Predict the 3D structure of the following.
Amino acid sequence: MKSSLLAVRNLDVSFRTRAGLVRASNGVNLDIREGETLALVGESGCGKTIIALAVMRLLVENALITGEIRFRGRDLLSLDEEEMRNIRGREIAAIFEQPASCLNPVMRIGEQITEAVMAHEQCPKREAKMQAKEIMETVGIPAARYRSYPHEFSGGMQQRTMIAMALAGRPSLLIADEPTTALDVTVQAQILDLLKESALKNNTAMLLITHDTGIIAEMADTVAVMYAGTILEQGSIKSILKNPRHPYTTALLGAIGEGGLRPLPGTAASLCAVPPGCPFHPRCVLAREVCFRKVPELISVKGRKVRCHYAGRSKAVV
Amino acid sequence: MKNYIFRRLIWLFPVMLVISILSFSILFLTPGDPAELILERKLQATPTPEQIAHFKSMHGLDKPIPVQFICWLSGVARGDMGASLASGEPVFQEYMKRFGVSLQLILLSQVIAIAIALPLGIISAVRANSKIDHACRLAAMAGVSLPSFWLALLLIYFFSVRLGWLPVCGYGGPKHIILPAVTVGVSGAMSLMRLTRSSLLEVLRFNYVRTARAKGLPEKTVVIRHAWRNAMIPVVTAVGLHFGHVATGMVIVEILFAWPGIGAFLVKAIAARDFPVIQGFVLMGALIFVLLNLAVDVLYAWLDPRVTYAAKGVRLK
Amino acid sequence: MKTIAGAHKANAPQREQSRPVVLIRDLIAKFNEYPLVVFAASLILLLAVAAIFAPALSPHDPLAVNMEESLQGPAPKHLMGTDQLGRDLFSRILFGTRISLSIAFATVAVCLVLGVAVGAVAGYLGGVADDLLMRLVDIFMAFPGLLLTIAIAGMLGPSMQNLMLAMIATSWVGYARIARGAVLSVKECAFVEAARSLGSGGARILIEHIIPNIVHPIIVLATLNMGQTILSIAGLSFLGLGAQPPAPEWGVMLNEACSFMGLAPHLFIFPGLAITVAVMAFNFLGDGLRDMLDPRFKKEVEI
């Protein structure tokens, strides 16, 4: 039984804005075990990135975070900045979407990778540089491109650079926030393969954040479905893909299926205007009165957890 | 890049031509006959028509204006800008004599400006919306509104008249340069500080700063090696351009402190209708300004690898 | 970076309100967010009142010489003291406000009208006229403003009118640039084509579509220009190229105060303070307006 690496409990993230308190995440529970990949899926704007930033403690100052984020048993939220900085990059690393904007434009990419190496290993620059070149080759960047600038790279190469920097510290958990969204379709597959390979080789756990349900089957072991800051369904990938129990999950997975595209009706709820009761109820065909009034509890049904008033009953058919 | 520099240098000639024509034509706005005015000053009495005529023919002022212009232009091409009507010295000499003097003041004042503006601007940005930040911004706003000549008077009052530490004016040893340099420097520091702050503030919001933090780098490294390296690009180019403007904004300070620089001399020449000096100085000033702009553009390209100067203007990758 | 657009209560019923009421309410709300703008505007209002009602507010005649009371410090009879000729400094400062504000206002107004007209026409005509204008603008902007102003003022002879002329000559290009930019951006717009096909004349298009586009940057430029102009007026008068003694102009007063620095520091402190306060007010206002009217500045939260 693999041990728990990351255990998020009751994570609430709110922001103090001029217009009041905005709740970006609501009682989120996540579990990632060593070497496992958890896919966090949901439409854009549902708060997935905020979870990633919360784990890394990279949120802005006006964010209120309550709950627990246990990494190897230690609550990350209770650490001071110095301790957290030791964890960033070394134990937990992250790559984000739009790699072009995530790279320092005036610094050569080789140097940026070397910098990542030196941040976590006490070694002279020459050695770090050699390590950096090795990592570059591992992720598929020719070492000869050490002195290139980010704007001279294609999107795929830029993302490989980000991956190289992330792997430099040999992290146990890699957070990948929409790593392929901004890339060409052909390149997407390459990057995903690279991520999977690295994860397997180094026994790195991964938190894969995406709105593309098409890629999670190959990449993830467990999945959590998020909507308007709330987890609606979570469990093993097999059980959820085969047998989704939440109307939203069904709709998400069925959006690209036989019979072509079947988009969900309506637009995703904005985090500033979360509907009362079950957040999905305005778009749910099965919605009844209780769905307006009461937020459903997260209950275990058939090997996964679901947050729906219909859960436990017959399979949710949409 | 070399092509770009070459093209810019070629453009120098038509631009300088237009500027010299413009400065030449300003002189036609003058009421009064320059020859008469200069002679009057020299002789301390009203000159006779014969004296005026003699003066004019001696200095070629009796020829038609386009001819005068061509004469002057051909002289410039040979490196001869004529001689001052008032002092008789070659214009070029007068310029170079004072150029060094003005340059000293510019350099020291910009060093002071940078020394004040950069640290305050960076702190202000890193601790945005804190008390320090608000204090700095208020000070910057007040500083920008402060007339430089009033600041000069204040400094003179406190450090010369009351405390007697520094001389009131004049050109001489290191003590003489302090007050004028501080005056120009502090005035320049204010706008520079605002630019530093806004530039750094903008860069700190960028994604690559987040990446640097995610790598676990200490905050100081993040701010200096990642944020500041990018934020300083517009600041450096602004300082470069500042040099050009400082040269002329210093006129008042030079006159106040009796600092024998270019600006003070030019104003005197304007009042005295000393045409050769005015034309020569304006030309030299414009030349330096244009070369300075070119240098700043090249510097910008060197600092920011994304910028390439292709055949037509700037292309940003 | 993701943003959450301005929060609002979900399911709040929208009440119908007349447009002017809503607009005024929004404007007032906006003003409340920018206390600095309100402060600066009130300060300018105060200065304007001082300028307009200077004769009524001045306790003494600013030109009245009274050698017995010369070089006195601040006292109840003379709030800011007297100068070397016994003239009341406070009264002179009040009248100085009138001079500075009126000249600056006139200068900026002329620059604005001239600049916008030339810029808009050049942009609209395009072609050679446009190129010529842009080269002219470039040259003017290349010339450091103060030097040009000094050159022109010096050439024409020291007087306030010549100073105004010189300042107008150097400052109008800024407005021309903005106007031209606005015209160019609108010229290509589809709705201009549509309007033209419906028969609207060139002038009408110019006025109806260009004006809204340039109001914001022009207002900001004009406000900041007021500050710069006041500074220039004082500076050049200080050098002797603008107002002449015995006019109670701030720069002239500073010039006269130089000789008496040791004896009567109040003579140079108060006029300088007046200049600083006036310029600062306009700078604050201009900066604040720039932020306030910026259309990009919505209520956004960055994550």
